[in-house]
Each structure stands twice: as structure tokens, then as C-alpha cells.
Amino acid sequence: MRRLIQVVALCFFGVSMSTMAQEAAEQQDGKKRVTDKIETILQMGVKKVTDSPLPGMYQVVTERGLFYVSHDAKYFVQGRVFNLDEGMRNETEEALSGLRLDGMKAFQNDMIEFKAENEKYAVAVFTDITCGYCRKLHNEMAEYNKRGITVRYLAFPRGGPNSQSFSDMESVWCAKDKQEAMNLAKAGDSIAKTECANKVRDQYLFGQQIGVTGTPAMILADGSIVPGYQPAGQLEQALQQAL
User: Fold this and answer.
1) Is residue 17 one of the residues assigned to a domain?
2) Other C-beta atoms within 10 Å of 103: how many?
3) Structural domain count, the chain
4) What pLDDT is attached to residue 30?
5) Would residue 131 show up in a list of annotated catalytic residues for this protein?
6) Is 134 a catalytic residue?
7) Is 25 contained in some domain?
8) Are residues 125 and 213 in the same domain?
9) What pLDDT is attached to residue 190?
10) Which of 100, 134, 135, 152 is catalytic?
């Protein structure tokens, strides 16, 4: 009898493992189908395909942002998903927050930092040297630093890779004194052309991937994004809430 029970158990185990393997293979095929279709039809590079909070939909991270795609790769959805049972929790923003924090790790040594002497907070700011509100923010750097806010710049030249601001920002990132070069650029002064291996393009593409559409755009400690210029006092309050 014990032998019979063991045989039956092994049979069930074998069937279960076979079913799991089949489901995994089907899911892998589904993700590949979605990836191929997006890259072929929409010409967007796919970074990651995972399950989404929506039944029957994948969550797809592309080089141009986060989208939802049906398992049969027929429907492509752009928008926010809110969880009614969890107090209208923004599921899309939570996913993007994680992507932002993970992605910024690649640029830890490539941001241009204006450090507060008594640092309490640090904020990553996607910036463009020609943007008026970016210049306003930079002109108030002393006030941000006075409140214990360290500002770390990431490059987001709004004109894209073929623009003059893109080239100028590469020169800023390649300058021997990056802080001084940034000061000059924000003041509208000409920047000496300098070339080196840099991550300006990578930072710009990363910004597009995580939902940056304009500058300045600030990434807080919890991965949330604050679009637009924020006075020092207002930003300080947002940073306190993000802890």
C-alpha cells in the first residue's frame, strides 16, 4: 500500500512539474511575441516584460516608457493603473519608482553634484542647460544647499542627441571642473568644446524610459518624480514626505 501511495505521489509530482514547465514555456513565448511585435511595429526597444496588475496584460518597459500589452500582443495600452481596493494606489507609478531607483545606480559616478555642507537630503535632477526654470533652480543652489539639500544633475538635453545643447552638455560632463562648467553653461556663457567618454546620451535615454518629458525633473529618495521647478522650501517639504 505504501508503495502504491509513493507511485501515485510521483505521478502527480511528474504531472505537476510538466504542467509548470509548459506554463513557463507558454509565458516565455508570450513575452517574446510581445517583444517582437512592439519592436517591429512601433520601433521601440523593449527592456523588460513582466506580469502586470491587470489580468491578461503584461507590463512592458521600453526605451520610451512603461506600457501594458495584452498576452496575445493585440492591444497596447498607455496610461495609469490605479488599485481601487488599496486606496487608489497608483500601480504604474510604483513600478516606475522602482525602475528609477534601480536605473540611477548606473549613474552614481556620473552625476554632477552640488553638495550641501550639512546634507540631509539628496535629489537627482534631470536638467537642460538652456531651460529657463533649470537656470532658475541653479541660481538658487545656495538656498537648496543651505537647507541641507544636495543636488545631483543628470543630463536631459530636450532637443535630443542632434541638438546643440546635447553637444554642449557633453562638454560640461567632460570638463575638468564639471561644477564650474555647469555654472558657466547655466549662465548662458559659451562652453569650451571638450570630448571624452561620457554618459550624457545614456542619461537622456534613461530619462525617457522612466517618464521624464521636460526639465527640470526631480527624482526623490523614494523614486517618485517631481516635475518642474520647486522653490527650496517646497522641495524640502516634498523630500521630508518621501523619507
Assistant:
1) yes
2) 19
3) 2
4) 82
5) yes
6) yes
7) yes
8) yes
9) 85
10) 134
CATH number of the domain where residue 22 is located: 3.10.450.70
Catalytic residue among 131, 135, 152, 168: 131
196 is catalytic: no
* Cα separation, 229 vs 233, whole angstroms: 12
Q: Which of 128, 135, 152, 174 is catalytic?
A: 128
Q: What is the pLDDT of residues 168-220, one digit of tens each?
A: 999 999 999 999 999 999 999 988 899 999 999 999 999 999 989 899 999 99
If asked whether residues 212 and 138 sit together in one domain, one would say yes
Q: Are residues 16 and 63 in the same domain?
A: yes
Q: Cβ distance 131 to 196 under 8 Å? A: no
Catalytic residue status for 11: no
Helix (H, G, I), strand (E, B) or coil at 148: coil
> Residue 118 corresponds to which cell in the numbers above?
550639512
**pTM, full prediction:** 0.82
Q: Place 108 in a pLDDT band, splitting at 50, 70 and 90.
A: very high
Active-site choice (152, 158, 168, 174)? 158
